[in-house]
Amino acid sequence: TLNPHPPNLMFPIIILALWGILMTSSICLRQTDLKALIAYSSVSHMGLVAAAIIVQTPWGLTGAMTLMVAHGLTSSALFALANTNYERTHTRTLLLVRGLQLAFPLMSTWWLLTNLTNMAMPPTINLLGELFIISTLFNWSTPTIIITGMGTLITATYSLYMFLMTQRGSISTQFQLLPPTHTREHLNLTLHLLPLGLLIMKPA
Fold first, then answer.
1. Is there a domain that residue 29 lies in?
2. Where does it reside (predicted)?
3. pTM (2 decimals)?
């Protein structure tokens, strides 16, 4: 049976996991490298997963498993999108790669959908996993709602920041002639986001 009250030895680990959510999320707000931003985003989400697993409740383990699957697909899609940008611009610096919505409108749609999924917008399965975990941690200790709430807010902030920095604004003159996107890239992103849409229909 699962123990709803983890031993005292686990308290420092849970605190470190929750503190790591805030630290890595805050680092994302100051990132200039696109791939580094996505990588730190994954660390932030795994802090939630680690805390939920250590609390050892059925809801916590269900939420951890759900979020691991959901973020595995979401993070992979973000890295695939970052790679499509890099193959055409040969830079990962956010300040240099702007206004790509004008050049690749369909790819911009993928960026929007993936970033909305990353910030756990309904009805994505990411939201289901995060709600399970936040409820678990709240039942374990009420003050954790402050940290998880702030983590969720910062996640939404840097997800919008990533989308606006890469897609909006005026495109640099050095990127006027960019090769078009390929069918395989759109198929790759479809195979990432389609399961996320289907899983919410039947999470079991």
1. yes
2. Mitochondrion membrane
3. 0.88
